[in-house]
Amino acid sequence: MTAETGSFTVKKGLAQMLKGGVIMDVVTPEHARIAEDAGAAAVMALERVPADIRAEGGVARMSDPELILKIMDSVTIPVMAKARIGHFVEAQILEALGVDYVDESEVLTPADEEHHIYKHDFKIPFVCGARNLGEALRRIGEGAAMIRTKGEAGTGDVVEAVRHARTVMGQIRQLLNLPDEEIMAFAKELGAPYELVLETKKLGRLPVVNFAAGGIATPADAALMMQLGVDGVFVGSGIFKSGDPAKRADAIVKAVTHYNDPKVLAEISRNLGEPMVGRQINSIPESELIAGRGW
Amino acid sequence: MKIGVLALQGDFIEHQKIMEGLGAKVSQVRLPSDLDSLQGLVIPGGESTTIGKLAVDFDLMEPLRSFAREHPVWGTCAGSIFLSKDASRHQPLLGLMDIKVERNAFGRQVDSFEINLDIPCLKKVSDENAPFHAVFIRAPLIESVGKDVQVLASLPDGRIIAAQEDHWLATSFHPELTGDTRFHRYFLEMIP
Questions:
Q1: A39 and which of A92, A178, A187, B50 could share a cystine (Cβ 3.0–4.6 Å)?
Q2: How far is A9 from chain B (nearest CA, A)?
Q3: Nearest chain A Cα distance for residue B26, angstroms
């Protein structure tokens, strides 16, 4: 009886354990502890939150391993870290550090404008962003064990997260109504692997856990995404760019659990202090938008 | 038969689907009043610190303890930590089962694994002799058990990964992640 590590079951399995939870961006061990105390299901270790990456510009890369290790030492919950799209060596380094999940993320500057990382080669699991069903299934085809529907990170504007969650769910609803002979053409139109389209139809949902990300700033935003059908949420700048991060983190965690209970949501939304300032998507020049990165 | 799944955080829907497939009625528990009229409760996998914190904040700790004194409760992974008396660190625990657990005992995600195990107690619900395929995700280990606790399963090296104390059940692994329903049937059999 030998044990097997690194299988797709255990990669997908960790994402299943994160469901109904909040994954928070943190830039210091102190932030990580605040997140854990507030009930975060995992943290994303970063040098800069997306709002700062946006403000400061320049090339955004994998964080310093020293910082990631310090954050890993400071909490007992899973720690994720970001690699650039297509930058498989950054991913190898993150695997060597022992992070629990790699986010191949459009928030960082892409290293490859045609190809993503071949994620089946790794023992650690990957989460990738997607704007539609085709993009999600292409990433799963490359080995992603978790998907996050993209929002526009670092804006505090939830509109893109809603758009992309509705797109993915809408395309799945469309697929469920197709007769068998139309599925191949639908797969071609999506640019998605046929076998994964069939699996999605059989399951009636994405074959892996699907979180929402990008622009979530309030408990109501988080509950909105949950009611739209995602399995959990990532919150980036929304917590540590707000007036009272500990309180807001605590409230967003509760909102994801009680997403269907407006009475509880009303109670936990009270007195949270200033939300992050936020930037409306339509005020941002197209060249600065990041959700469109990913192929 | 009506079973609850503690739905604060984690993979409670996986448990719910299996139990429903076995003919049980299942409802999700988020507030103390959700426990009314249930005959058993499953505490799923997830993050034990998250589940514990939400249970404290929504005043579930005492209601869960009094429910558990009367009815069968099963904790998988994070659920087994939450049921234990001792998790070797300070975090909210129901403190019911006389077991000492060690969180993340096998290491980080890169050390998560699956393995086939012989679990003799499952003979009660099935004549199948097939081993049980057990999935461990950043799993805890049951370091030691009290005198009234029965060890149900161990790894080939002898470390304990499933235990029962009267009507309480703890597994370090996730029977809800495989198609094998024997552990769920075993739990349903515990309900009078």
A1: B50
A2: 8
A3: 18
Residue B146 contacts A, CB cutoff 8 Å: no
pLDDT, tens digit, 9 for 90 and up, residues B12-30: 999 999 999 999 999 999 9
User: Exposed (0-12), middle (13-18) or buried (19+): which is A261, by Cβ within 10 Å?
Assistant: middle
Task: Tell me, rounded to whole angstroms, the distance of Cα B95 from its chain centroid.
Answer: 14
What are the C-alpha distances in Å from B70 to residues A48, A101, B66, B73? 50, 40, 7, 9
CA proximity to A148, closest of A165, A163, A160, A134: A165
The token pair at B72 is 């069968």
pLDDT digits (tens, 9 = 90+) for A184-215: 999 999 999 999 999 999 999 999 999 999 99
B176 is annotated as an active-site residue: yes
Q: For residue B125, with 0-12 CB atoms within 10 Å meaning exposed, 13-18 middle and 19 or more buried, which class applies? A: middle
- Helix, strand, coil: what percent of chain A each, to 5? 45, 15, 40
List of chain A residues whose C-beta atoms are within 8 Å of the C-beta of residue B136: 10
Q: How far apart are CA A205 and CA A201, in angstroms?
A: 7
Query: Residue B135: enclosing H or E segment and its boundaries?
Result: strand B132-136
pTM: 0.97
The interface predicted TM-score (ipTM) is 0.96
Residues of B with Cβ-Cβ distance to A97 under 8 angstroms? none
Judged by a CB distance cut-off of 8 A, whether residue A263 touches chain B is no
> A276, A238 in Cβ contact below 8 A?
yes
